[in-house]
Amino acid sequence: AYxxxxxxxxxxTALEVHKKQIIGQPIYLSxxxxxxxxxxxxxxxxxxxxxxxxxxxxxxxxxxKDTEFEKILETTAFSLLSFVNKTQKHLExxxxxxxxxxxxSERHALAMNIYETVVKILRSPKPDIRDKIDDxxxxxxxxxxxxALIFYLFFTLVFKIGSFIEEPLISLFxxxxxxxxKYIHRSSLVYVIIEGIIQGIAGGIAIVLPYLTPFLIGLxxxxxxxxxxxxxxxxxxxxxxxxxxxxSVIPFLLGYGCSVPAVMSTxxxxxxxxxxxxxxxxxxxxxxxxxxxIMGLVFYYLGPNYAFGIYILNLLVVxxxxxxxxxxxxxxxxxxxxEVPNYHLPSYKTVWIKSWYRLKEFIxxxxxxxxxxxxxxxxxxxxxxxxxxxxxxLPITIPLALPPEVGTTLIFGILRKELSLIMLLQALGTKxxxxxMNKGQILTFTIFVVFYIPCAATIAALWREIGGKKTGxxxxxxxxxxxxxxxLFRFLSYILF
Length: 497
Hints:
Keywords: Membrane, Transmembrane, Transmembrane helix. The protein is mainly α.
């Protein structure tokens, strides 16, 4: 199916069967499962016919805990729900697994029986090098070691490429501002607006894009090569230790790209409790915008080990937060059935399409906001209104031992996370942050930005998926974590540096 081989022939055969009205042979499940299916089929027979559905199909869908069909039953035949729940529990008690997993296993067993009946293996297959690779990359110990190594190398490469491009571009924009100062005085409002426009454009071209572009291309390569599904497989155990469904891995992985689709992808989870907890935890995952901040500050000024350490810290915090939330909302979670594709060389076209789709959001949405934000901050500084915002933010900046000027950057960062980095350079009035902030302050600031309030687009996505009240709880929860971790590392920085 992946290569398209035989698909046209399959479609032609299906159409031919439909035209000739050939009735297929009924497929029966294991004896005890079949008995339960038959009982439920007879119960839903009348409602299935009113819905113009095959009764057996509806019975199987209800045993699979299909939310759409459960909703239909709630509105059309509410009295049947208790019988359906009893049937599901009976199947679970008999097999020791959730009813949806039992039905999936039955289908898999039937497929294997058909395969063994019709397929003749003329020769034993040769050992595939990809299987040997999987023996290492999906090993219960080595798999996690290689996972850490691969992502360490990945982020190091992203930084090397980003820093190589950033420095000459920054100096180029600095020179352009110097030239403009020959014609327009620095203290004039016109210069402030022009400077804001140039700094906004420079922030996108020289700071964000050099790190964001290789990050998104690398992520698409890992995804298209078949490695990311293996990461999901490795992290399935981690999810269950948190008390979440294994499918929660998917929103988590998407979160490293963008928090908005990550939050929206929680729809794949059947349990409302899992959707709520996973949505909150995905907002703590460092998205590509926060990755730019980690690269542009910690990696650039403190080194790769500190930057990678933030990702390790993030996983530990997400794990601890998940454990707290699942203890507050206890529920049994089923296992994950995941099809892992074969390794293959990534398609240039696919990698380009995925990378451009994710990059386009920054260029079309975030970059204009960045430029406008840069102009607004310049005007606020010109009229000294930024001091009011910074004063209001003192309850945050003083305990974290951060410069007061940082307050405005935290407010702008709620619009788009990239703004926190660009506005920081503008608010401090220098491209060399170490002249204003020490290494401990850089680390504290970055950790706070990584964990605190998600961006406006993510807040909107949360509101749609889990409602306003729970979104408010998610925001409070993230601020508490951000403040706690930043305070902790404020004092740890005295030891580290």
